[in-house]
Write a structure and sequence with these properties.
five-stranded parallel β-sheet; 7% strand
């Protein structure tokens, strides 16, 4: 692999993929300095191919918060499509969201729909409100109708099989739209997965994502994006009604899997099923970077992984603290 990575005839995207693979191989051998050297080459090369403006993420999140002020969110609470089937699993990439979905997929009452961009697409079609905001009654009536339509449009795009009581939408970046989702689908449930930010961000940095996550290829940009995520989740917690979202720590899930799995299943309004404890036996397509981990029994090996790279991660750690 090292020899091939130095081949001048190799395509750049293949070279990038090779350096990510070499980083993983060296880490598996305990050669952490070499692992990070390959990761740095891979990330710097990948970042050079991207047209990414970090300020655009901050602008988007500010606009989403402006769309649903605390007063407006309270005024339209419960107005959307009442279907209780959706369970949104949100958080940062590489935080444990795939593990949560795989556990729920083992439940006979759950259909795991994977990572969907359906709500973001539906939100892009959200109609402008014609009523004058100064006419509060008319404005709110039109907004409530639009939210019901938004929820119905989202549900129509997800074809869950008939026996399923719930379906999961495991698009981590839906944390950006959680307040809008709760307005459009007031009986939906959220599972927010949190993991040590250093482990989360290191895992992102070591991953060559198939699409998106353009913030992940530079340590400072990665730390800055994590701060935006943390800020957005503070806004979400303040506005979502009590009981709608479960905050779940990845480390707690790994430390006492059955107890936390029972919490998740109960939060989703389902009866407990012991099949959830053998999540790795579920046969279904998985198209995320966590596919290998969730096809085998649970391991705590990735907790504290960042400590192997503490010196190299200093720009990230500084950025996380602002």
């Amino acid at each position: 692999m090292t020899e091939l990575a130095g081949d001048p005839l190799l395509r750049e995207d293949d070279r990038i993929e090779l350096h990510f693979a070499l980083a993983a191989a060296c880490e598996a051998l305990g050669r952490y300095r070499e692992a990070f050297a390959h990761a740095r080459i891979a990330n710097e090369s990948k970042r050079a191919t991207l047209d990414y403006d970090p300020s655009a993420d901050a602008t988007l999140l500010r606009s989403l918060r402006a769309m649903f002020s605390p007063q407006l969110a309270r005024a339209v609470r419960g107005a959307g499509e009442p279907d209780a089937a959706p369970v949104f699993i949100i958080g940062m990439p590489r935080s444990g969201t795939t593990l949560v979905e795989q556990m729920l997929a083992a439940h006979p009452g759950v259909y795991a729909a994977g990572e969907l961009d359906a709500f973001e697409r539906a939100l892009g079609l959200f109609p402008p409100i014609a009523a004058d905001p100064r006419d509060t009654d008319a404005f709110l009536a039109e907004l409530r109708a639009a939210l019901r339509e938004l929820g119905a449009r989202y549900l129509a795009s997800v074809q869950a099989p008939a026996p399923a009581q719930r379906f999961t939408d495991k698009m981590p970046s839906n944390f950006r739209f959680a307040v809008a989702i709760a307005a459009a689908l007031p009986n939906a449930r959220f599972v927010h997965v949190l993991r040590d930010p250093r482990d989360t961000c290191l895992s992102c940095y070591m991953t060559n994502f198939a699409d998106g996550q353009n913030y992940a290829y530079d340590l400072k940009e990665l730390g800055s994006y994590y701060r935006l995520y943390r800020e957005q989740m503070s806004y979400v917690r303040a506005l979502l009604p009590k009981g709608v979202m479960l905050d779940l720590e990845y480390e707690a899930l790994v430390g006492d899997f059955e107890a936390q799995a029972r919490r998740i299943v109960e939060h989703c309004g389902l009866a407990w099923d012991p099949a959830c404890l053998e999540f790795w036996k579920v046969e279904r397509p998985i198209r995320t970077a966590s596919v290998v981990q969730v096809r085998r029994p649970l391991s705590a090996g990735s907790i504290g992984r960042w400590r192997h790279y503490e010196r190299e991660l200093r720009p990230l750690i500084d950025a996380l603290h602002g």
